[in-house]
Structures are given as structure tokens and as C-alpha cells.
């Protein structure tokens, strides 16, 4: 079993209680698939399951490649039946229900789920109907409440957004919070000899152009320029590119005599000739 398969097997069940729209079940499936969740349970969906057309097509289009989850979704008549085989259940809600249950953010709940529960414990997360959220009778079945730290000026989340936030936090807790890929190194870091040669070339051309004025400030201006370029951590390709840029800027019109002069300067100051 691969790590992805093992993670998927331990992933919490997503339980949509009385979902109103089949299209929202589709977007939920897509959110689940993004983060390795596969156990989708539906409690008394309003449009039935599987739905008839056009609701079926809308759900499949919204799933966007996660149609397999729609096909394996299980349907239950009651919330109690949907959670019967689970060891721990969370209820998502936007408001305090006065039931004395632990109230957790998605991050805290999913970290606790991964680190504190037995490896074979089965977990489920309840999500309520789109318009009203979970009833108190649904919340009472849960061990803890998950609520979302959103801006109170606009705290409305749609169903798939809520599922996505919890699924993302679970995935981070289970698989690690690291980027799936890193930068590709296309060119090795430039050696200091090449960088110093570039500095010398740039400063020589700037001197010809009268940049270093007043003359007494030239040492400070040179250091400032070198520090700017040093902070960039130049690669071999960077050095070649900057040399080409400087040449084009100072070459101006393509005058044969000027081009020959510049080529001689570059050959005399190129890293290979140092």
C-alpha cells in the first residue's frame, strides 16, 4: 500500500446532512478528492441520490473529475445511521450551540484527529444543509464542534468551501505541511571569479558613461552596486544574461567598429580569460 493509499484509508468520512442541491454534492466530491478523502455519506439528500437529470449532470460537471466519489457515496435515512460505525464525530457549525462541547478550529481538530486517536479509529465530520446548517439534534451526536475563524463581517461559507477547509487541514496534519515541489535549478551558482568579472565590466562601462559623480563618492557607489547584485545570489546563467544586457545597453546602434571594440573588451574580461 502506498503512502497515498494509507492516508486515504485513514481519512475522515464527510457526512452531508440533508444536502439541498446535487450540484453542491458534486463540488464537495471535488474538494474531497483534492485532499485524499473518499468516504462520502449523504443523509436524506433533498434531490435524492443518485439524482435524476438535470441534477445528475450538474453534479457530475461540478465534481470535475471526481465522479468516482459520487458513484461510491452512501445514502442514509438519518444522521445517527450515518455515524453508527464511527469512533469520533465532529459537527461543523458557525455559531455556538450551548451544548458544552469542545469547540475547535479545523486545524486543531484535524491535528488532534491524526495525533491523538488510535491508528484504526474511524472519524466523521458532519456538514449541515446549505441554508440552515446542522440542527441541534445533529450536533448533539458529535463529540466536538468545528467552527471556522472567518471575518465576522461576512462569515458565510458554502458547503464545498467548508469541506475544503477541513479536508486541507486534515491533509496537512496527515501528510505534512510542505510544498509538493521545489524550484528547478537550471543553472549552477556562479563562482565568485565570474561575479567579480561582471562587477569589473559593469563598473568600467559606468565610469566611461560618467555615472560615478561626484568622484569622491565613487567607492560608496561601487559598493552599493556590488551589494545589490550580491544579494541576488547570481547563477552562471544570470552572469551571462547580465553581461549580454549591459552590452546591448551600451552598444547602441549596430556600428561595426563599436561592436568589434566591445567584443575585444569582453574577450579580455571574460571569466575564461581571467
SSE topology sketch:
Blueprint: H1 3-10, E1 13-17, H2 22-34, E2 40-43, H3 55-63, H4 67-72, E3 74-76, H5 79-82, E4 88-92, E5 103-104, H6 106-116, E6 123-127, H7 136-139, E7 144-146, H8 159-175, H9 192-208, H10 218-230, H11 236-251, H12 256-269
Parallel strand pairs: 1-2, 1-6, 2-3, 4-6, 4-7, 5-7
Helix pairs in contact: 2-3, 2-8, 6-8, 9-11
Commentary on this structure:
- The chain is of the alpha/beta class and 274 residues long.
- It has two domains: 3-175, Alpha/beta knot (3-Layer(aba) Sandwich); 192-273, no CATH class.
- Helices cover 48% and strands 10% of the residues.
- It has helices spanning 3-10, 22-34, 55-63, 67-72, 79-82, 106-116, 136-139, 159-175, 192-208, 218-230, 236-251, 256-269, and strands at residues 13-17, 40-43, 74-76, 88-92, 103-104, 123-127, 144-146.
- Strands 3-2-1-6-4-7-5 form a seven-stranded parallel β-sheet.
- The longest helix is centred in the middle third of the chain and has 17 residues, at 159-175.
- It is elongated, with a radius of gyration of 31 Å.
- The model is unreliable at 1-8 (pLDDT under 50).
- This is RNA methyltransferase.
- Residues 13-168 form the tRNA/rRNA methyltransferase SpoU type domain.
CATH architecture of the largest domain: 3-Layer(aba) Sandwich
Which spans have pLDDT < 50 for at least 5 consecutive residues? 1-8
How helical, in percent, are the residues?
40-55%
Class by helix and strand content?
Answer: alpha/beta
Give the neighbour order of strands across the main sheet.
3-2-1-6-4-7-5
The total of beta strands comes to 7
Distance between the termini: 57 Å
Amino acid at each position: 500500500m502506498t503512502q497515498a493509499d494509507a492516508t486515504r484509508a485513514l481519512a475522515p468520512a464527510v457526512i452531508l446532512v440533508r444536502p439541498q442541491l446535487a450540484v453542491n454534492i458534486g463540488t464537495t466530491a471535488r474538494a474531497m478528492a483534492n485532499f485524499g478523502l473518499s468516504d462520502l455519506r449523504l443523509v436524506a439528500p433533498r434531490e435524492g441520490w443518485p439524482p435524476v437529470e438535470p441534477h445528475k449532470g450538474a453534479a457530475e460537471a461540478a465534481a470535475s473529475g471526481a465522479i468516482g466519489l459520487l458513484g461510491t457515496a452512501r445514502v442514509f435515512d438519518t444522521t445517527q445511521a450515518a455515524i453508527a460505525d464511527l469512533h469520533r464525530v465532529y459537527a461543523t457549525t458557525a455559531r455556538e450551540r450551548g451544548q458544552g462541547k469542545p469547540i475547535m478550529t479545523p486545524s486543531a481538530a484535524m491535528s488532534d484527529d491524526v495525533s491523538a486517536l488510535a491508528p484504526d479509529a474511524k472519524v466523521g465530520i458532519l456538514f449541515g444543509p446549505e441554508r440552515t446548517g446542522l440542527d441541534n439534534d445533529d450536533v448533539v451526536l458529535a463529540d466536538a464542534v468545528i467552527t471556522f475563524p472567518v471575518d465576522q463581517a461576512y462569515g458565510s461559507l458554502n458547503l464545498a468551501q467548508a469541506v475544503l477547509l477541513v479536508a486541507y487541514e486534515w491533509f496537512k496534519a496527515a501528510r505534512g505541511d510542505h510544498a509538493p515541489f521545489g524550484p528547478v535549478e537550471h543553472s549552477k551558482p556562479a563562482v565568485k571569479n565570474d561575479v567579480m568579472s561582471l562587477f569589473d565590466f559593469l563598473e568600467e562601462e559606468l565610469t566611461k558613461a560618467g555615472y560615478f559623480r561626484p568622484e569622491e563618492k565613487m567607492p560608496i557607489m561601487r559598493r552599493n552596486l556590488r551589494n545589490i547584485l550580491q544579494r541576488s545570489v547570481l547563477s552562471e546563467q544570470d552572469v551571462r544574461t547580465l553581461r549580454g544586457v549591459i552590452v546591448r545597453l551600451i552598444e547602441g546602434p549596430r556600428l561595426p567598429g563599436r561592436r568589434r571594440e566591445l567584443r575585444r573588451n569582453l574577450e579580455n574580461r571574460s571569466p575564461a580569460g581571467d
